[in-house]
Amino acid sequence: MIHLHRVSLSYPGTKTLALYDVNLEIKRGEFVFLVGPSGAGKSSLLSLVLRRVLPTSGAVYVEGVNLRRLRGNRVALYRRQVGVVFQDHRLLPRRTVEENLAFVLRVQGVPRKLWPEKIARALRTVGLAHKRRAFPHQLSVGEAQRVAVARALIVEPKILLADEPTGNLDRENAHAVLELFKLAHARGATVLFATHAEDLVRAYPRRVVGLRAGQVVADRRLG
Ligand SMILES: Nc1ncnc2c1ncn2[C@@H]1O[C@H](COP(=O)(O)OP(=O)(O)OP(=O)(O)O)[C@@H](O)[C@H]1O
Ligand SMILES: [Mg+2]
Hints:
Elements: E1 2-9, E2 19-26, E3 31-35, H1 42-49, E4 57-62, E5 65-66, H2 73-79, E6 82-85, H3 97-107, H4 115-125, H5 141-153, E7 159-163, H6 171-186, E8 190-194, H7 198-203, E9 207-212, E10 215-221
Parallel strand pairs: 3-8, 3-9, 6-7, 7-8
Antiparallel strand pairs: 1-2, 1-4, 4-5, 9-10
This protein binds adenosine-5'-triphosphate (ATP) and magnesium ion.
């Protein structure tokens, strides 16, 4: 489903390679942890799959489509199939929880009459139905991150990218967030999950791709 073929990436204005000759094949429905030290290239790899950056050489294919060939509004259409969660929740600060979710549905062109049901379901999934009228600053860090996950999941993305989504969370909240990703995985999403948290990898032993200095140095299947 996701195929990186001989991908190298150097950011404009830099000489070093953030990724170097990376080959990676991820099947539909796989759950892949991306691990490796700071600067290894985890976020860069996710940016390539989101098509926020293009490879300097090589190609990224998603469902057989070379992302380099997407032009204009096709980029936006592609990204709509991809859910993303970052380390910080990035919720809109002046919008309530339900307005944050409605915003995504609007962008995605989901008919308005479907919003209440979808929002209610997404918030139930993350256990925050009672917070739907709250503003982000009224939430705990863990709650805000669960809303961010709800926002990523509400459109049932085929691909789910997570860049250290538990980096700001204590152990309990981190595992709660992992549970949400497991749920999305069980529903068929292909998940790429970048993390430093080894206990999460142990808690959900799946495929683990190790990066170091821009190269894939390990690729193990734990389950
Ligand atoms: N926007 C950018 N411009 C220039 N160089 C960048 C940019 N983003 C990342 N890099 C460089 O690319 C390399 C890989 O960075 P990347 O952010 O992908 O690593 P990472 O594995 O996500 O690290 P971390 O665990 O700290 O998040 C690093 O050397 C970094 O300095
Ligand atoms: Mg990173």
